[in-house]
# Entry
Amino acid sequence: MGGYAAPTHGRDVDKKITSKQVADVGEFGLIKLLTEGLSYDAQTIVGVGDDCAVYEVSKGHYLLATCDMLIDGVHFSRKTASPFLIGCKALACSLSDIAAMGGRPLFALISLGLPETTAEEFAQDLYVGIRSMCRDYHVSLVGGDTVRSPERVVIDVSMIGDCPKGKYVLRSGAKPGDAIVVTGYLGSSAAGLEIVSGKQSESDAERRSELIEAHLAPEPRCAHGVFLVENFEIHSMMDVSDGLAGDLGHICEQSKLGARIHADKIPISETLKAFCDSAALNPLKYALAGGEDYELLFTLAPAELERLTSRWPDMFEIPLTHIGEMDANIKGIHIISAGRRERPLDAQSYEHFRKSRERE
Amino acid sequence: MGGYAAPTHGRDVDKKITSKQVADVGEFGLIKLLTEGLSYDAQTIVGVGDDCAVYEVSKGHYLLATCDMLIDGVHFSRKTASPFLIGCKALACSLSDIAAMGGRPLFALISLGLPETTAEEFAQDLYVGIRSMCRDYHVSLVGGDTVRSPERVVIDVSMIGDCPKGKYVLRSGAKPGDAIVVTGYLGSSAAGLEIVSGKQSESDAERRSELIEAHLAPEPRCAHGVFLVENFEIHSMMDVSDGLAGDLGHICEQSKLGARIHADKIPISETLKAFCDSAALNPLKYALAGGEDYELLFTLAPAELERLTSRWPDMFEIPLTHIGEMDANIKGIHIISAGRRERPLDAQSYEHFRKSRERE
# Structure
């Protein structure tokens, strides 16, 4: 400690001083920069880089830990979402991270930054949302911090979970020949975001409502994740938060494998199809580059998938879709579209598409 | 879930709608409002209202959980503190909360909101500070989140600890006749804040440096807390983060007792005395209303205190000071000043003093 007067205290002053801004490095570059060379103790089984960290709190007892910061105007908008749903969504992000490991949520901490002019009612309704998700998903809201934030509402949720049978699934465990499977439908959340933010319109009230709900009121797949991990040998898993292309890309990268997916098998809801048809949009773009679907994306051996598909419909209503295979002989993601040859998925164009949809 | 269109969804719509802003309710009022009637599961031993929550993760194995949100211009200032020290301080708040329960820190999650124009170097140095504290206090930095924050740097630290021998200490356990004890010195941090923010000046370089360091580079008392709880019967404990008057007030309130303190026993460093002498200021005000000292404030039976004072100097360099007694026959805090009668401590005036020192 000490040395408060020296702005470079504690860092290697010989290190080349860059004049880059964080915008130049990007989110993943920044995380790499900040966590490079981080050394973990023996209890930290998994550190930075998966949906949750895994910490062995006592022999064979694994805790899962995740945090998500949401800022008004960046991750949600008070103009388009009710405080109740903002509260729900803040919890949904962390719940989905726990689900993505096959874990069970235990407790949460909430830090809340509020401008002084925030209506008391807004804070109350936000907490009604937070508390309702805690109740629905059996999470104990054990503590928090409440501070003044001059301009914007800031919500940070930290969640701790555990692995009931000592099992958890990482992004890095996919094996060649694994079937790639996804729960539910993809892309609806992204379409819903464009509707609430006024970038697209949908005159059909029912469709409009369903797409917006997919965006504002996602349902994390906690029970599904636990069911998968407790009953099947799931090799790799994560949640779809940045869009299928980017997220499957993480599984490929961390498992050191490629993936081949079939465009016509990607699960797109009838509602999203109808919305895209009427607006002459490509639903595949929403599914591949969308994000915030909070569905589970996982891989397992084909024989296990057979066993799984026979049991799934008795357990859950949402569909389970086999969209492709992991392959050691290709690099990155290849997509096979109807009537077209297999081609590498151009992640860049989807990244651009995704960025152009950001709220600000 | 659902009902995204209804801003009042999930709340009792008959409830009287207030038009109050959060500034009208104050921090403690807001926490009460948001957490009132919160129901905890059987594993949540202590919820909102102490330095940490206590969660029984397996039989007799207690986890401690705390989070602190720090916002530029509210809790620190990039104008007066180096990123290294901002990082250190962010960790210090949470470490001190764990120390205040007598616990041992295990792991931390960090959410970081950064404006896009933040220099890469700032983020790096911030993390050098964070990582240096993690190393010094044996905390594993297991994960985090990095997001864009349009205007301000926002740091949220969540920390999980445990209780090595299954013992932890709450604010609520003080008993009548308990000695009130505090570690280290009080008030220096508050004086340091006034110096760095330009509200006061100190021409003596050594004094200036010591006071600023007390503010910017506090040392959480983790080893001290564990030593106290493992070896002595500590009835109640917390850390001094809002000033002695307010914090001892929490012990009084939660233990349903009063407290009598002796003004001339409150530990004030020679440096703070000299600073106050030269500026014609009252050091007691800094100690009582200051805050961010991150010392431990605790109560124990007089016989235990005797045992403790005989062992303490062999273990630690910082002083231990007996400043008063818990008393069932008085309400709130009474103070005995030299040459003056015992009188109730007027918390209000200290609250005002504290507020007038806020950064914005």
Observations:
- Residues 51 and 97 of chain A are 5 Å apart (CA to CA).
- The longest strand of chain A covers residues 61-71.
